[in-house]
Amino acid sequence: MIRELAVCLRPGQKMMLIETVKLKNRPGIPVLLNIIPGLGIGSFVQGDTWAGIAQLALEIGGTFLQLMDFSADSYTTNYYVGTAMYAGGYLVGVVAPWVYSHKRISQAKSLIGLPSLSGGPPEKIIIIPLASFVF
User: Is the per-residue pLDDT at 132 higher than 50?
Assistant: First the structure.
């Protein structure tokens, strides 16, 4: 349905629509929310449920494994696996908002008929100089 409606838009209107999509999908705040409180909150706010669940599971699982060794005198494998899981969750929280944002912008571009950066070379654009018009 969006593709059919976008046919009537002029190129300038399509670019304004893409700029609006870019403004709504900026990854800065979701990354910050994934770092400071953590637990995938930023990904959930952005709408990326799968990344939010992955970060939540990795951070809770990692913390649980680390706490299992809290009373031990020496660290065991659980502590190191938990630390690796927590670090993986942190990495997901930093990278996933950027990937999701790029994916949403590419989807919007393909829906309204603009070439995407990952979709190959752009179509040929014809520019008509104003001096060629006869008044």
Answer: no
